[in-house]
Each structure stands twice: as structure tokens, then as C-alpha cells.
Amino acid sequence: MAHREVGSDHHELFPVQELDGAPRVECPMQGHSVLFSECQSCEHGTVVRVKGAALPFVLCPSDGPAHGLMPGAPDAEVITLMKPVVTVRREQPVEALIRTFMDEGVTVAVVVDDLHRAVGLVTRNHIVLDHHGWTELRDAALSMWPADSQWHGAVESESELFLHDFLRSRTAGDLMSRGVAYLRPDARISAAAKAMARTQLKHLPVLDEENRPIGMVSSLDIAQWVASREA
Ligand code: SF4
Predict the structure, then answer these.
(1) 3-state DSSP call for residue 14?
(2) How far away, in angstroms, is 45 Cα from ligand 1 center?
(3) What are the sequence ranges of the domains in the chain?
(4) What is the DSSP code (8-state) at residue 183?
(5) Which of 148, 155, 170, 202 is 20 to 30 A from 5, comparing alpha carbons?
(6) Distance 26 CA to ligand 1 centre (A)
(7) pTM as predicted
(8) Is the CB of 58 within 6 Å of ligand 1?
């Protein structure tokens, strides 16, 4: 699945919503809601599916440049508030992925290929299993014997065997979301906020022209930026 630029001045994500028993989209070009089936054959839009969201979104031309977050206040580019991004290789085992999250103090990382281009996004939520939450998986990963230890494969129970097998054999590439929603560094902060509100994503990576990650923008960064302007 191709990545999707969001937060540009000319394209925005519009949610598909159940209205009167049918999936509909508020069409920016027609100025009223249309059936989702119309979008699927429309040359102007691209259907975007976000992991965890029940209904998809449609990336469509917006009706004009994004407006500021507060009326009359100047906007800025996301490059002014983006934070360093953490990247992992897609073949990185889940055990090492958890260690990266703990060492870097993050909950999200961009998965990259050999040329350091973004191929996916992985978060703590991608790691958790139905019956094994984050805390249990983190503790299991941190307590595993190193690969060069004679105790490396030692386990005490069936449950531990299952967890260790998951942590060692599954990789970031197995768990990641493909088709990354991303920002360009010159996207407006207000447009990024709109994209996050629509997709309910808390983090958006910033990619350069070669699709290499250069930063990360979070909803918290935007909230703090707004608060600093009000101070
Ligand atoms: S895909 Fe086409 S019809 Fe659907 S909302 Fe976008 S512009 Fe409108």
C-alpha cells in the first residue's frame, strides 16, 4: 500500500461515516455528503484505511488552504515543532523493538528499509496480544537471556515459551501498519492538527522527498505549541 501525504494545503482526509444507514462522506468538492460508493469510483479521491479505525477515510482535494488554529493567529510549518524520530529496521525482532521503545522513551517508531525509507509505522498497540498486555510483554522482553547466553532458550512454562517465541520470531515488519500517513516538513501545523483529528492518529511522521523520516509530530507537541502561543 502506498503512503499518503496528509496535512498538505490542498488535500485532506475526510472520514467515512454511517449516516441514515449508509456509509457517506462529506464531499469538499460537491459541498454535501455523498455515498462512499461514489468515492470509490471518483478520480479525485483515494481511499485510506487506518489500522484500528472501523471505517476508512478518503484523501480528497480540500476547498482551500488550511486556516490557523486560532482565528487571526499566524500558523507555522510542522518543521518548527517536530521532534527526533525513532526508526527501526523491519527485520528487528519484537524483543529488540520493545527495548528500543524503552531506551528511547517513545511509543511509536517508523519502520525503514535498507535505504532508510519509511515502509511502515509501529506502535506499542501493534505489539500487544489478546491475552498478553504491554506490561507483560515488556517484562518478558527485558528479562530474556541475551542471545549469546547458555540460558538463551530457557523457559519455565508453556506461557513463557509462547511469549519468548513471539518476541524472538516476530518482527517490526510483521506488526507494522503499511501505507503510512505522513506530513511534509512544510505542512502547516493547523493542517496537521486537522489530519490528526480526522484520523485519530496521535503521531504523524515527517518524511523528506525520498520518503526518509526526518521527524515526528505528536498531538501533544501541537497542544503545547498552541498553549505557548496563548501564554
Ligand atoms: S472521493 Fe470524490 S466524491 Fe468522494 S468525497 Fe472525495 S471528491 Fe467527493
Answers:
(1) strand
(2) 5
(3) 65-231
(4) B
(5) 170
(6) 8
(7) 0.70
(8) yes
Report whether CATH 3.40.50.970 matches the domain 65-231: no
According to the model, what pLDDT value does residue 66 have?
Answer: 45
- Residue 195 CA, ligand 1 centroid: distance in Å: 17
* Phi-psi map region of 143: left, alpha, beta (phi>0 left; psi -120 to 50 alpha): alpha
Q: Phi and psi for 136 in degrees, rounded to 5?
A: -65, -45
Q: How far, in Å, is the centroid of ligand 1 from the Cα of 111?
A: 31
Q: pLDDT tens across 86-120, in order? A: 999 999 999 999 999 999 999 999 999 999 999 99
Ligand 1 site, residue 79, Cβ cutoff 6 A: no
Instruction: Give the residue among 160, 92, 135 at the shortest CA–CA distance from 151.
Output: 160
